[in-house]
UniProtKB/TrEMBL annotation:
DNA-binding region: 124-218
Organism: Luteimonas gilva
Protein origin, superkingdom: Bacteria
Main location: cytoplasm
Entry-linked SMART domains: REC, Trans_reg_C
InterPro entries documented for this protein: CheY-like_superfamily, OmpR/PhoB-type_DNA-bd, Sig_transdc_resp-reg_receiver, WalR-like, WH-like_DNA-bd_sf
Keyword annotations: Cytoplasm, DNA-binding, Phosphoprotein, Transcription, Transcription regulation, Two-component regulatory system
A GO biological process held by the record: regulation of DNA-templated transcription
GO molecular function: phosphorelay response regulator activity; transcription cis-regulatory region binding
Keyword Protein transport: no
Organismal lineage: Bacteria, Pseudomonadati, Pseudomonadota, Gammaproteobacteria, Lysobacterales
Keyword Transcription regulation among record annotations: yes
GO cellular component terms, semicolon-separated: cytosol; protein-DNA complex
Protein name: Response regulator transcription factor
OmpR/PhoB-type domain segment(s): 124-218
Length: 221
């Protein structure tokens, strides 16, 4: 999960990045509107966490820039502005949700998961295929209703494959989801995680698409 955090408070940004990275996210930080616009042009993100009170230009200008490009990336506004008129302005400008500082990290994470689900066309917070289910909020994997112990890296690998169910996920995409970057780990590391998941959850759960990557669901290669 690749996120853009637009926040001018460096201490708060560091705290939010640390918490989000513990959940397996890769987080880029922009401290002002100009840096945010550049990042949005140069990169694709799964979601944007956007402060409104930025130096030089409001976060609403970033939101307007994003939607003006017909970019539907989910945007969660995080701001100290708690007036009803501010919330309405943010939502009407194209934000997907709005949370007022100070907030509890768990609420932020829950709201982020919700906007991501909506953007993916999902209603249930639980990802599932056949008898395997993964609950991102509880960090729980089950098979036939029984908990299965998986490592953090195995959990993140499985989550991305389930989120992209029916589509091929490349090794590079899995490396990005698990480590926040690609090309910096051993070439067989992802294959090891896939092997462990097959051992714990069934050999047929994850298919190998030779020359491309892995897939859960869809036609057999």
């Amino acid at each position: 999960m690749n996120l853009l955090l637009v926040e001018d408070d460096a201490m708060l940004a560091d705290a939010l990045r640390a918490g989000l990275e513990q959940l397996g996210a890769s987080v880029d930080w922009a401290a002002d509107a100009g840096a945010a616009r550049t990042a949005l042009v140069d990169h694709g993100y799964d979601a944007v966490l956007l402060d409104l009170g930025l130096p030089g230009s409001s976060g609403l200008s970033v939101l307007s820039f994003l939607r003006g490009r017909y970019d539907t990336t989910p945007v969660l506004i995080i701001t100290a502005r708690d007036k009803l008129s501010d919330r309405i302005a943010g939502l009407d400008a194209g934000a997907d949700d709005y949370i007022v500082k100070p907030f509890q990290p768990d609420e932020l994470y829950a709201r982020l998961r919700a906007v991501l689900r909506r953007s993916q066309g999902r209603v249930s917070p639980v990802l599932s295929h056949a008898d395997v289910a993964l609950d991102p909020a509880k960090r729980l994997v089950t098979r036939d209703g029984k908990p299965v112990q998986v490592s953090t890296h195995e959990f993140l690998t499985l989550m991305l494959l389930l989120e992209r169910q029916g589509r091929v996920t490349t090794r590079e995409q899995l490396e990005e989801a698990v480590y926040g970057s690609s090309g910096t780990i051993e070439s067989n590391t992802i294959a090891v995680y896939v092997h462990q998941l097959r051992r714990k959850l069934g050999e047929k759960l994850i298919g190998t698409v030779h020359g491309y990557g892995y897939r859960i669901g869809g036609p057999q290669p």
